[in-house]
Amino acid sequence: MEYDLGWVVFTALLGGIVGIYGFLKKANEWFYVSSLGEKQKTLPPGDMGWPFIGNILSFLRAFKNGDPDSFIASFATRFGQARVYRAFMFGNPTIIVTTPETCRKVLMDDEHFGPGWPKSVTALFGKKALHGVSIQEHKRLLRLTAAPIKGHEALSVYLDYIKHIAKTSFDEWASMEQPIEFITEMRKITFKVIMTIFMSSEVDPRSMKAMEKEYTQLCHGHKAMTINLPGFAYHRAIKARKNLIKLFQAVVDERRTMIKSNQSKAKKDMLDLMIETEDDDGRKLSDEEIIDLIIAYLFAGHESSAHAATWTIIFLQKHPQFFKTAKEEQEEIIRRRPPTETGLSLKEIRQMEYLSKVIDETLRLANLSFVLFREARTDVSINGYNIPKGWKVLAWIRHIHMNPEIYPNPREFNPSRWDDRRTKPGGYIPFGAGSRLCPGADLAKLEVSVFLHYFLLDYKLELLNPGCGVTYLPIPRPSDNCLARITKISKSTA
Fold first, then answer.
1. Is 438 annotated as contributing to ligand binding?
2. For residue range 214-258, what is the model confidence (pLDDT) as tens digits?
């Protein structure tokens, strides 16, 4: 009798556990899908995970275990090659699109898709930043602020400074006896470049160092779990934003005072432009808009440059044949240079055809931004599937760049794949597409080209842990931050 009673209790407990598990596993489906009525029949296949957290644990597991592509692969394995899937990501019901055609449509169609960044990103980068405002406001802000960092012609005024900081920094690193974290040092110099574009050289070194420290902390939290408790990356990022606002506000206040008192400057920087410019209705930017824009542009023109340059150098060092070809191109540029010219010119940068392929291949393989966020403004159909109004839409561009149907042997670094290659629309979108194309793309490419020119000619990177793994969040980087020694190998006349 006791034996039978024990089995009854055990069976009841097991059944209860299974029932609770089944309920929790389907809770998101019932809450978000059942309310759609007939529309639910045309939703993409997928799995919306657990209540509140959705699929975020499997997402983090894939990225933190060094196999980020397994996340989307798991959807394909379970639900077939639909290539459009439903999920629950970053606190919202979500549609994930993974093909060039669907990603391009989502990124280009401003009528049906608006900004969809998680609330955590808005909290860190600001409500007035470019990523979160309406398309009309986005266009207004770009008209008022983007001219100094869009297009190589506009950026050419900063070329001498970028060259100077590249050469002096590389020389300094090569003289050090101790190894350096190469990616950390690259981030520091790209931060100096973007801050010079914004604020000239008027910020004192201590304030600059404090800004760089707080900004780095902010960046580390923008793709972390949104747990605003001490000890978590997101909490540290929120604190860093508050400190960063104070530092920037002091600079803005000082600059406004200088402008009001007619203290003229020989050359205006971007901060002057943002303070003085006004739109067609006579509106000027508020302090909040200016500071949020500075933070947004920092991310757009600083993170991409540092990580792209680092990964390009790593890839080239690991592939001597490509390193040799890239170096020979830079040496040829110097040989063709007229005696009357000194230093690298914008014209010469445009002649770097092979290096351009190397950079494109790096951006494809490194996938500095694996996904872009949008939100459905209305009910919209993609590939025969319904995307409900208000649902988030993630353009999973990493899946495109790593798709063997588009790029044979996608995990292989091969700049030659860009020889006379014409990718289908949406097949290569490292900086996004459409009206919200990353405003820092031109600056990033210019900086990387300049850094690589001098590095290829005169320096060598010796990795201390050549087999170390990769940390994929928030941005892919070697797990040891590229611990290395820099060796100077020659003295060019670049």
1. yes
2. 988 888 887 677 788 898 888 999 999 999 999 999 999 988 888
User: Residues 158, 159, 160, 164: what is their CA dihedral angle, to the nearest 10 degrees?
Assistant: 100
Closest to 103 measured CA to CA, from 403, 305, 441, 366: 403
Distance CA 20, CA 14 (A): 10
Return d(Cα 392, Cα 52) in angstroms, integer. Answer: 15
C-alpha to C-alpha distances, 461 to 127, 188, 360, 487, nearest whole angstrom: 41, 18, 21, 7
CA separation for the pair 478, 311 (Å, rounded): 9
- Give dist(CA 47, CA 62) in Å, integer: 16
Compute φ and ψ for 462, nearest 5 degrees. Answer: -110, 105
The model's pTM is 0.90
**In this structure, what is the dihedral angle of CA atoms 394, 400, 401, 406, given to the nearest 10 degrees?**
-170
Q: Is 59 exposed, middle or buried (0-12, 13-18, 19+ CB in 10 A)?
A: buried
The domains of the chain, with CATH numbers, are 117-371+434-488 (1.10.630.10)
CA distance 77 to 249: 51
